[in-house]
Amino acid sequence: RALGFSNFIYTKNAQPIHVHGLRLAIMASVAPTDGPLGDSGLIVDDGEVCVYDQNDSRPVDLDRLVELGPFDAHFLQFSGAIWYPMVYQYPEKLMRAYGRKKRENELARALRYAQQLGARHIIPHAGPPCFLDDDLWAFNDLDRDPANTFPDQTVFLEYLQAHDQPGGHLMIPGSVMRLTKAGATVAHPIPDDEVRAIFSDKRAYLEAYKTRKQHVIDAEKAAWPRGQVDIAAALTDWFEPLMAIGDVTCVGINGRVLMEMGATKLVLDFQNRHVYPWAGEEWEYRFAFDPALIEWCIVHHIEDWINDLFLSCRFEAERKGAYNEYIYNFFKCLSPERLEYAEGYYAERSTDQQFIELEGYKVQRRCPHLKADLARFGKVEDGVLTCTMHGWQFELATGRCLTSDDRKLYSVPLVRDEKDEAGMPAAHGAAEAPAYITPPAIKCKHCWYVPGRDLNRTKA
Q1: Are 354 and 365 in contact (CB under 8 A)?
Q2: What residues have CB less than 8 Å from 226, skipping those under 6 apart?
């Protein structure tokens, strides 16, 4: 709206709409690892040709995606867009082994998508990044290093040919493809020999690019705040309230994360849900940052550190044990809204359905809108449940959403004089909701947990 747009069209996942002679469809992803509020690809069909821009999304419902075709052109990511394994503190031999595996996996994944969708023309895009700062220059794949995770378009096009996959095209910013049922032609904004030189002499190309942008890099780094923020106090005030509501996230991490920011060293203790100065305790993950970058995130209150900080590769990491996606999802979800969405996503995929009692009704715990915890954000007046996180309203008697026509709340009236052993009122009718069978409580180091119930954590 700030840019002057006023006509917004609301879409539903994988359902085509028709706008000004175009058939459009969006394939949405909703996992916390996709955003956390999601990712998507776009399908555009003008009646003659159909194009799918997958970009860097990872669709899983390929059967439905194929139904929206057939596709004449398929744009997809093929190169790295993550910090792994470069920022981890591995020995050189192990680092190269992980790098080779990562490079092969990302090329193979893109090939599988191309094979599954079967488009006549395949255009690698959405990468690779170029690193122009001296601190990051070594991440560029200047010499087709098989352990570098940032291969360029020509590498993937050759990979397609080696696997007998036809239809690959090279495009760069400014290139124009003319696409018809008969075929496709590409016109570049510069002569073809200059296009080839970008990739055949990448070092010279990037050095010239770096020279042109050095003043921008210098100005940006000079603007980073230093000494303007009490990092320890700010992160404690910011993170502890999030830990307090992040039941599934804290259980998923179940350990300590050490953050080293110059002289400031803090522990994010997800077992006890506190932030405190490090005093030599054991940790499961360790991150080291330039404190200026953390100050910048605090000053600008960045709610998604993954896209604004971690993707810059300007940090070091160590871990003891396997990769833990809950840790990185926490850093994507640094607001109650984002964290509630992630919590709801994981809770809905748990084998333990979570319900709460509200004004004589058994109600699903998570709001159908963006998964806010209705035990915390639900308010009932005159038979209407309002989720105060975003203001969405539901009629308790029917579950009908009063805010949108494509959401429904699970809501079942309770019989007050029938209780189960745990004191939970029973619902009407076995067909409507299964009766509760109270499993034994499980005691771990820091909490009691009753499967199928809220993850209430009480100090043992």
Answers
A1: yes
A2: 291, 292, 295
